[in-house]
Specification:
alpha/beta, four-stranded mixed beta sheet, 15 strands, 17% strand, globular
Length: 420
Amino acid sequence: MEGKNGQLQQRKDDALPRGTGNLCQWYVEQAENATLRDVEGNTWIDFAGGIAVLNTGHRHPRIVKAIVDQLEKFTHTAFQVTPYESYVALAERINSAVPIAGKAKTAFFSTGAEAVENAVKVARAATRRHGIITFGNAFHGRTFMTMAMTGKVAPYKRDFGPMPASVWHARYPNPITGISVEDALASLQDIFTQDIAPQDVAAIVLEPVQGEGGFHIAPPEFLTRLRNLADEHGILLIADEVQTGFARTGKLFAMDHYDVKPDLITMAKSLAGGMPLSAVSGRAEIMDAPGPGGLGGTYAGNPLAIAAAHAVLDVIAEEQLCARSVRLGAQLVDFLSSARANCSAITDIRALGSMVAVEFSQAQTAQAIQQQAMARGLLLLTCGPQGNVIRFLYPLTIPDTQFSKALDILSGILKPYQDS
């Protein structure tokens, strides 16, 4: 590569370890809503959203103002040393919104992995049990505990040695691979029979829609029966909503689509519009299980991120982003369904609101489409165990004309893949 991007890439390769890989070989200089501009003045329509972090877009004016206003007051005190009202107020807002039965309480952290690890801590403290069950193809983070919980080896676990103990993986319902609800529940019973007694299991952790795993949506029957199974054995049910939260699925939380209520919910990503903030919410009596000092972190609930999160909730409500998520998602599904009618390479389309994915028969097809899209000014992400799924994570604030332009770009790319 030549030019500024090439120079920066050389500097990156020299200064950073190869483990910090990058999708793009260009370097962003400016971003606005759903548009990215690189250091050479090229622009892209952003359908990646910082991996589901920017449901409210890049630099939303309300969020920028909230951060600037807080910046004029203070940037950091460590909440567990010197608390501040904005943290308490945000917890109150989250408590009133989460689909938790009864009174809820919330604690803030910095990353999604931190939220998941702290949910495990809370569950173990509340139940006095050690076992954690997650699901195949799940993604819960890159720290050691969350690596153990993640249901995929490469690249997340490979080369990093033994994982923490007391974590087992059940099967997640997936009609594409022939895993039925009955199969998934039977795999849980196998774990209880072969690996750990149910009375030693603290929590079952699942994504209501698997993110990295390919945007597979949990069937309502599965969640209902999982809730019943958990109740039967005194096991807590934890919903990992790090990727699904904050209007992406057409509801504030994906669990709002179900009658089932989890005991704990983890959240991060779009909670603070690009600022590092995560949270664990749950039933009050469960959240109170760890003693004072058992939860926290130096940067947990940073004041700037807290201010941004307040603005995010305002924007979601005032701009009706849940309804907009449903409308944009339906438009995208209609487009993909039309394309599928003439394209046998497309094997499935999955969607809940604007959490939309299209699966291809081969990974190289998905990756080729991703590369061609980038060359034409559209940034896309892949996912799934084989990397054969393209997921769409555009800002829900994207202008209609820009959204249509993105679909036009995608239409042109898909034409050569249509059946003759």
